[in-house]
Amino acid sequence: MASEVPMMTMNDGHKVPAIGLGTYSLNGYKGADAIRQGIDTGYRLIDSAFNYENEGAVGKAVQDSSVPRDQLHICSKLPGRRHGYDQALVTIEESLLRTGLDYFDLYIIHWPNPKTDKYVEAWQAMIEARKRGYVRSIGVSNFLPEHLERIIRETDVVPCLNQIELHPYFEQAEQRKFHEQHNIITESWSPLGRGRGESVLEDEAVRAIAEAHGKTPTQIILRWHTQLGAVPIPKAGSAEHQKENMSIFDFELTAEQMSVISAFSKENKRLWDQDPAEYEEF
């Protein structure tokens, strides 16, 4: 039985669950079934993106689930090629049409794409989308402090949330500190650090911590995220892994155990060298 998921309050007053379900590569009817299964398991935050090409699967899962719509927190993301103001608004409308939903609980800009340099325009469109009722909360993803400072300065609207690459190999202490100072929720993508040749899940010290708590290494790492104040969104297609990932709120890591996990972090240990200062996503 998954433990109860706490809620975190964003700077606009809306709440977001402390863990979510990542849906990248969960597509089609099979993906819809996996997402619906996740909702039935207890997930209430579902993360998607226009570029994942699975907003329809998310909508189908919501439709097929017995959980009321107002208890779910559905998120999608604006792609880089649609940063123009009018383009962005139409894309958000298309996202709604794909899902069959009346609104998104959260919509975020997927990457800043600083070379293209239209992310301020995209943020202005997000503000308008919220005014129109398309979305309830607006945020960003992969924005560095310099990008965040600029959109705040030019629009006076602070994002509710920034979804960033965050895992034991790359703990992003300075980025998280900036978020805390500006009351921005940190959300973690690739929270388990998969994609490298090594795996923190196989480390003896992590396994010892897991054994001490009667948990799995995966649960230890996800608990590390929540105790940092971040919202992890691990992808999980099987019921077994979905339940495992959610069962992390009935124990607490010690300060020493937190330090053991944070010690894996090295400067700029991004998994795929996607530096938001340079990377362009379309």
Task: Provide tags for this entry.
282 residues, two-stranded antiparallel ribbon, alpha/beta
Task: Please provide a brief summary of the model.
Helix content is 39%, strand content 15%. It is α/β, with parallel strands linked by helices. The strands form two sheets. It has an eight-stranded parallel beta sheet with strand order 3-4-5-6-7-8-9-10.
What does this structure look like?
The chain has 282 residues and is an alpha/beta fold. The protein has 10 helices and 10 strands. It has helices at 28-41, 55-64, 85-99, 119-131, 145-155, 173-181, 204-213, 217-228, 239-246, 255-262, and strands at 7-9, 15-17, 21-22, 45-47, 73-78, 104-109, 135-141, 161-165, 185-189, 230-232. The strands form 2 sheets. The protein has an 8-stranded parallel sheet with strand order 3-4-5-6-7-8-9-10. α3 links the parallel β5 (73-78) and β6 (104-109). α2 (55-64) packs parallel to α3 and α7 crosses α8 (217-228). The termini are far apart.
Shape by Cα distribution: globular
Distance between the termini: 40 Å
- Order of helix and strand elements from N to C terminus: EEEHEHEHEHEHEHEHHEHH
How much of the residues is beta strand, in percent?
15-25%
Query: How many helical stretches?
Result: 10
Low-confidence stretches: none
For the biggest β-sheet, the strand order reads 3-4-5-6-7-8-9-10
Tell me the helix content: 25-40%
Spatial extent as radius of gyration: 18 Å
Output mean pLDDT: 96
Q: What structural class results from the helix and strand content? A: alpha/beta
Largest sheet: 8 strands, parallel
Number of strands: 10
InterPro entries: AKR, Aldo/ket_reductase_CS, NAD(P)_OxRdtase_dom_sf, NADP_OxRdtase_dom
Family: Belongs to the aldo/keto reductase family.
Keywords: NADP, Oxidoreductase
Protein name: Aldo/keto reductase
